[in-house]
Amino acid sequence: MMNSKGLLLLVFLLSGMLAFSQRIVYSEPSRDDTRRMNFEIAGKIGNNFLIYKNVRSSNWISVLDNDMVEIGKQNLDFIPDNERLINMDIFSYPEFCYLVYQYQRKGIVYCEAARINGEGKKVGEVMLLDTTRIGYTANNKIYTVLGSEDKSKIIVFKINSKNKKMYQISSRLLSDRLDLIKESRLTLPMEDKDDYLGEFNLDNDGDLIFTRFDRVNSENIGNAAFVIKKAMEDSFHIHPLTTEKMYLDEIKIKPDNFNKRYFLTSFYNKQRRGNIDGFYFYIWDKVNDRVVIERMLEFSDELRKEARGNASTKAAFNDYFIRNIITRRDGGFIIGAESYYTTSRGNAWNRWNYFGSPFMRPYDYYYYSPYYNNYWGNRWNDRGSVRYQADNIVVFSFDSTGAPEWNNVIAKEQYDDQSDDLLSYQLFVTGGQLHFLFNVIESRRQILNDFAVSPDGEIKKSPTLKNLDRGHDFMPKYAKQVSARQMIVPCQYRNYISFAKIDFN
Hints:
6-stranded antiparallel sheet; 5-stranded antiparallel sheet; globular
């Protein structure tokens, strides 16, 4: 039997392990890590953490050990420093990552890939994935590069929208070794002058899915269709959505790879420019090739009162945007939505004057990608006198038929007059719980908080994270979960960017 001293020692050791697992470790910024540095967290590669960094024409990989000490800095000399680098995408695997980048040399845009090991070094030769000849200077990325959830496939595609009635879509489906699986060049009819393409996704089988829709007077979505480009086929399968009795907002897509289904959702309203009334759901059965659920779910007055913040009950969801869709193995799904808006000189932001989010850029270039990348050069908007605001989060749970199971509201109120870097939240999934990490102002300090949501919808505020350094302001919206129990969060530290590693129990 353990004596009292042994028991006290065991309690001490266990408490020490708990404290260690909750403490935050910070990296030391170098002189190049200024606040205007572009960056992306590659992830945990081998035993190290890799972070891609860019300042002007300089590109490098910072290699950090488990104590967040920089043990290596690898300059990416293979990226032409005298050419126009347009975009960088990173696809991480346990022992390596791919840097897929595009740059312009004279009138040609190149899309290339390099394999990087856990020491930040290039392995093998740079691989040319595709080229495009254009007659102008590209302001945004020409290629969109997506990876499947199981990381078995990567697709590189571009869209030529010069002919507004007939888009040309070229794609190259690749294996996880970047071997070519299928190359396709297809045309997609755009039936109306106000037709647009929405969010793209790649499932584990290599099928590309997206939406096509029109904007009624450049406002709400009227007609819409779900489009599937199967991996080994040279055709599009177009499935119209039933939208006669409503107007859709921004359509989100999520492949449910386990159940072989596709999940589409959007906020909807019954009147043009009307208040948000509820959710629209559309679920496609991939195995039987048919729609299994298409329904509307109206928000209750009780939920509106909980979620409304400073808005009226009727307008409770007018500033909300869908941020997360999580599919479950039982066919159910969870949606996270956040109130996110701007005000300028006393004028409230109006969602109908933009296409979806207020921070999206218009599709006004010859080739375009439908994506807005938070990491690559878009953190400084220079929008003048603008107040950014991010308020309540609402979490919804639904069963496999789309019937509601529970919902709950995480109350918060965030704002900043400089930028939105410190606002919003990041989701961390561990131990059967959803953790929402965001800053809360306490005693004039930005304090990182953790609110955990259990499988039955109960919300609990976790204990204050240990080792919160007074000089570090967290930017959780740019954070990345790098393992089952670890997250890397960028921070503002004086006039620099540093990175913090958080270990969760």
